[in-house]
Design a protein that fits this description.
Bound molecules: S-adenosyl-L-homocysteine, iron/sulfur cluster, FE3-S4 cluster
CATH architecture of the largest domain: Alpha-Beta Horseshoe
Strand content: 15-25%
CATH superfamily of the largest domain: tm_1862 like domain
Largest sheet: 6 strands, parallel
Radius of gyration: 22 Å
Number of domains: 3
Distance between the termini: 60 Å
Helix content: 25-40%
Length: 439
């Protein structure tokens, strides 16, 4: 068998997975294989999967069924499952889907070329060991051209929120060396990238294994050494949101004034059952500190409704928190029990219909708040990083403000992708700003 494999990868789940797909692409590329952009052109199809909620897994299972048709063609096609579902379900994936040939967890991606070769020889393969040290630090992600890049600065999670599958699918928390991250930012700048997003499940518990530098140190070094780069980061945990970190964000113009800080619930009783390790009061204290040092900082959050034993009173506390804090945006979910987590042993006692009702209630409230906040943006001027023609109408272009709001505007004659333009906001919805370029 010759080595000319053409590989197509499809990505589900969070930004960590998008970033991992770029690492897998590098591994595959270094092995001499070609990366293609449709399953039709491929003889290896890989799905990089997510397990965070049942729905995420359902999507992948449906896709696997759909991809069966590629296995029925004359040419041999290898089908692989990577990522969090691979780690969570392991051999169960092979047992359930006779079409799947390889199953590879997040810490074993270096084995993919070998597993593909063996699969073509008829041997199914599974590699799902988690590692305490693997960070793929030495591999430069194979990125698509563009202006905005992801950089994974750490892997895994040690927080063990009781509802969450991530510590089981991604293993123990480990950070990359600070110097290697800063070097990557410099290199991306030389290549023409204008924005980087530092990624981790809890970026603010980052700790350099060489120097013990913390996340504030890392941010500062990136900002100082590459002053023209816009620097973003997700996700922060409320427990590790130190004053030093907030001061660092405030101090550097090129660190974006946008913080995603999942609250999950407004009820202390539920927060405790979730093992979030903070109270609402602590959370609010962090928000107030952020707002006092960074007055225009945009804030977003995650909410879970219908956690086991959540009463109407607990739910009201979440609604009250949303009203009191007034986030710019929120990702809102209904609780989905995940096998092996602590919460899985609790009784999932909020009926599905009630979860949906509570979810709609938080969504409606949050939309109203986002809309009101965006009305307040009218006539303000934002510096927007130009991303290119907007999806809906190509005569308009899209970009993002420093505060991470998608902004639509008419491009000038010389407007180019990657430019920073000043846009005066004229109109808005709950999710989007509309404006005009001003000089
Ligand atoms: N590390 C990040 C994000 C983890 S997953 C953090 O700690 O915030 C993203 C979001 O999915 C979580 O913030 C949570 O709101 C949601 N989530 C995780 N597990 C879930 C579950 N079992 N059911 C519903 N939502 C869940
Ligand atoms: Fe999951 Fe909690 Fe870790 Fe976030 S902090 S990945 S919610 S266990
Ligand atoms: Fe999903 Fe794994 Fe990310 S479970 S949210 S892809 S870390």
């Amino acid at each position: 068998m010759d080595n000319k494999f053409s590989v197509y990868i499809e990505t589900y789940g969070c930004q960590m997975n998008l970033s991992d797909t770029e690492i897998v692409s590098r591994i595959i590329f270094n092995a001499g294989y070609e990366i293609v952009d449709t399953p039709k052109k491929a003889n290896v199809i890989l799905l990089n999967t997510c397990s965070v909620r049942e729905n995420a897994e359902r999507k992948v299972n449906e896709r696997l069924l759909h991809l069966k048709k590629f296995k029925e063609l004359e040419k041999p096609v290898i089908l692989g499952v990577l990522g969090c579902m691979a780690e969570r379900l392991r051999s169960r994936i092979l047992e359930k889907n006779s079409n799947v040939d390889i199953v590879v967890g997040p810490d074993e991606y270096r084995k993919i070329p070998e597993l593909i070769q063996n699969a073509f020889l008829g041997e199914k393969g599974i590699a799902v060991k988690l590692s305490r040290v693997e960070t793929y630090d030495d591999l430069e992600p194979l990125r698509k051209e563009g202006i905005s890049a992801w950089i994974s600065i750490m892997r895994g999670c040690d927080k063990f929120c009781t509802y969450c599958v991530v510590p089981y699918t991604r293993g123990r928390e480990r950070s990359r060396r600070m110097q290697s991250v800063v070097d990557e930012v410099k290199k991306l700048c030389d290549e023409g990238f204008k924005e980087v997003t530092l990624l981790g499940q809890n970026v603010n518990s980052y700790k350099c294994p060489e120097t013990n530098s913390d996340f504030a140190d890392l941010l500062r070094e990136c900002a100082r050494q590459v002053p023209s780069m816009r620097i973003r980061f997700i996700t922060s945990h409320p427990q590790d949101m130190s004053d030093k970190l907030i001061e660092t964000i405030a101090e550097w113009d090129n660190i974006c004034k946008y913080i995603h800080l999942p609250i999950q619930s407004g009820s202390d009783r539920i927060l405790q059952l979730m093992n979030r390790n903070y109270t609402y009061e602590h959370y609010l204290g962090r928000i107030n500190k952020i707002r006092s040092l960074i007055p225009n900082c945009a804030l977003s959050t995650d909410i879970i409704v219908g956690f086991p034993t959540e009463t109407l009173e607990d739910h009201q506390a979440t609604l009250r928190a949303l009203k009191e804090i007034r986030f710019d945006g929120a990702y809102m979910f209904r609780y989905s029990p995940r096998e092996h987590t602590k919460a899985f042993k609790m009784v999932d006692d909020v009926p599905e219909k009630e979860k949906i009702r509570r979810l709609n209630e938080v969504i409606d409230l949050q939309n109203k708040i986002s809309k009101e906040i965006n009305l307040g943006e009218h006539n303000r001027i934002h510096i927007v990083l130009v991303e290119g023609p907007s999806k809906k109408d190509k005569t308009y272009w899209a970009g993002r403000t420093d505060t991470n709001k998608v902004t639509i505007f008419k491009p000038g004659k010389d407007t180019a992708v990657g430019d920073f333009v000043k846009v005066k906001i004229k109109n808005s919805t709950s999710a989007t700003l509309f404006g005009e370029i001003v000089q």
